[in-house]
Design goal:
The chain is of the alpha/beta class. The protein has twelve helices and ten strands. The longest helix has 16 residues.
């Protein structure tokens, strides 16, 4: 397996990352531990979570599993800060006060002395970047963080962060984590070329388009009872569109013609797009992880890439996976 460099960091990561968004909700701890150990054994070395996932339980599960197996130093451990995690007015956003407090809390939950990659989960609408980057720089100097990144940020905010880091000596972002799949290719318009030009890695989420590209949904209105769209509703159900399901059905046909599953094709397509460091896979079960692992060794052919472009043109979107970002206007064709 060929490992890829994460931006300008020099850190090598596998071409697939393990996402822990399902840990605790709904994946139980014993299954989550098996998923973690199997992923590491297969060569996946980046585990991504967030301090708001399942009220911190995702971090706790990862921390216990890595401590029990004595495997902490085998992984690049990534988590995030921004969302509200308590009742107080300072229990959210990207102020110095909240970042330092949230980092200490994540360290305790993860049972570690340091976090390899600390990501700003969303851009702040009000906190100056100098305050945010200053706090992150101090945490790096204290040895509590190794690298920093952003998630679901507009290109201009990422450039502002880079500019301020260059001008004032703050720690520099090494990567961005946007949504990316065949149903929402908008990062190709600005995010991807910007990251390529300025040396940022791109770790993407939702390669299966929340299961739409894996054949999970046959209707945008009648959702399976155990699906994320039905269980969580809101932004999750909004991402399931008739246009997306139509493309998903074509992906199923295309995958069958090339001897793979639609889930494997959807993940492979993201993995081998220009500028992408690694898509995050978020298995709910060990079986789902096993099904995704062969993609580590697969290569997207020119024929398949062109066929996918015919289904969903570059830069287009038929479903919004940016609908958790207040700054993004929802223009869907």
């Amino acid at each position: 397996m060929e490992y890829r460099t994460l931006g300008r960091s020099g850190v090598k990561v596998a071409p697939l990352a393990l996402g822990a968004g399902n840990f605790s909700d709904p994946t139980p701890e014993d299954e989550a531990s098996r998923i973690i150990y199997r992923a590491i054994d297969a060569g996946i070395n980046l585990i991504d979570t967030g301090n708001s996932y399942s009220d911190g339980e995702s971090e706790r599960m990862i921390g216990r599993a890595l401590a029990k197996g004595n495997r902490r130093h085998e992984v690049i451990l990534a988590t995030k800060v921004f969302y509200k995690v308590g009742p107080g007015p300072n229990d959210e956003d990207l102020s110095r006060l909240h970042i330092i407090r949230a980092c200490e809390d994540s360290l305790r939950r993860l049972k570690t002395d340091y976090i390899d990659l600390y990501q700003l989960h969303r851009p702040s609408p009000s906190i100056p970047f100098d305050e945010t980057l200053g706090a992150l720089t101090d945490l790096i100097q204290q040895g509590k963080l190794r690298y920093i990144g952003s998630s679901v940020h507009p290109s201009w905010k990422i450039m502002e962060a880079i500019m301020r880091s260059e001008l004032k000596g703050y720690a520099r972002l090494v990567c961005e984590q946007p949504p990316y799949n065949l149903l929402d290719r908008r990062i190709e318009n600005e995010i991807v070329p910007m990251c390529q030009a300025y040396g940022l890695g791109i770790i993407t989420w939702s390669p299966l388009a929340q299961g739409v590209l894996a054949g999970r949904y046959s209707s945008a209105t009648e959702l399976p009872a155990d699906s994320r769209g039905a269980l969580r509703g809101g932004i999750y159900s909004e991402r399931i569109t008739p246009q997306g399901i139509a493309i998903g059905n074509e992906v199923i046909k295309l995958a069958k013609q090339h001897g793979m599953s639609p889930a494997q094709l959807a993940t492979l397509w993201v993995k081998d797009q220009p500028g992408i460091t690694a898509p995050i896979i978020g298995p709910r079960t060990l079986e789902q992880l096993e099904h995704a692992l062969p993609v580590l060794e697969m290569t997207l052919s020119d024929e398949l890439a062109q066929a996918c472009d015919q289904l969903a043109p570059p830069g287009s979107a038929v479903a919004s996976f940016y609908n958790s970002a207040t700054w993004m206007k929802q223009r869907i064709i």
